[in-house]
Amino acid sequence: MRLGLFLAFWIGHGYLLMLILNVTYSQPYHRKFLKLLRLSFGLLLLAGPPLFGWAFGWDLAELLQQGSAGTSLLPACYAGLCLLLGLIAFPLVTIWRLIRPTSRAVLSETSRLIDVQKELGHRPVGHGKHRHLAEASWNQFFHVEFTTLNLAIPNLPAPWEGLQILHLSDAHFYGTPGQEYFEFLINECLKHGTPDLVILSGDILDDDRYLEWIEPIFGKLKWNVAAFAVLGNHDWWNDDQAVRKQLQAIGIKDIGNRWETIEVRSLPLVVAGHEGPWFRPAPDLSEAPEGFRLLVSHSPDNIGWARHNQMNLMLSGHNHGGQIRLPVVGSLFVPSAYSRRYDMGTFQEGSTVLHVNRGLGGKEPIRFRCPPQISWLVLRGQDRAGS
Ligand SMILES: [Fe+2]
Question: Separation of 12 CA from ligand 1 center, angstroms?
Fold first, then answer.
């Protein structure tokens, strides 16, 4: 009983740290501060409960009794909060996440796992600082999921039935994985066909030395109508202007914090980009025409803004699915103000459909039960979904 209660306290303590860390990481702070915070929280996670037990006693039931009697009030309150989180909130949230239905926007989903190591005959770990992580045998970084999604989109104009979007995100060029990993994946996209639109939803780069990868990798992409990109927090920490220039040079439009109207199958489509909270201000759509609106936003946290601005479809990345997903529990570290809610997948909020891609890379090249992802989206009208 005593041990079980202490274990629940430890879980609650970890859950609280995770919530604080996730919300803090969603904000535009300096990366050194965030790194320091992550390290301190790691230490607090491991050392906090034993230190607490040593200082205030290991019998939490007794500590709670003392708290209700007016002594040891502060530690008793903290123990109570952690027990509530560990015994009630965490199990309930886990159950809710396990049983929540797939979004009604997803008409069908097919997945193909690409074993890049097998296809290339070796593991393309590259020459990055963290290549030793990519070499670990348990690391599933080189199993990439090619996801084809038929999505029911409210108010999709009839001529756009079957419109195809290739959605890529979070390449994080940092030396690892190597250039050949990305070139191989872009080739896989080309083999699938030519989409109408190509969308890159940010975090292109993690080190300015890899700016020169943009042209040989993304320069091979093909599309029928247009390609758009926004930047993310990792681009913000690097030379974002140089990234924008490189993208423009290969025909990918920088839609960061602005909007424009393009013609798709003779109809206007408003495309907007939101790079907040890192690049500001958010696009001003007061002059934008009515009609179908597509939002590219690095962070899915802008979902409230998207709904407010009548976006029909929103494409995001940033959260990487958590990169490490435990059995039953799922993701833990997700840099979002909503914590794990939009870690990956498809959601419908009001009449806005949101797709969150897990990304191709990551500064820390670690993946467990959370493969990198290429999303191929096929749009279907909601009222024509059955046809
Ligand atoms: Fe990212």
Answer: 27
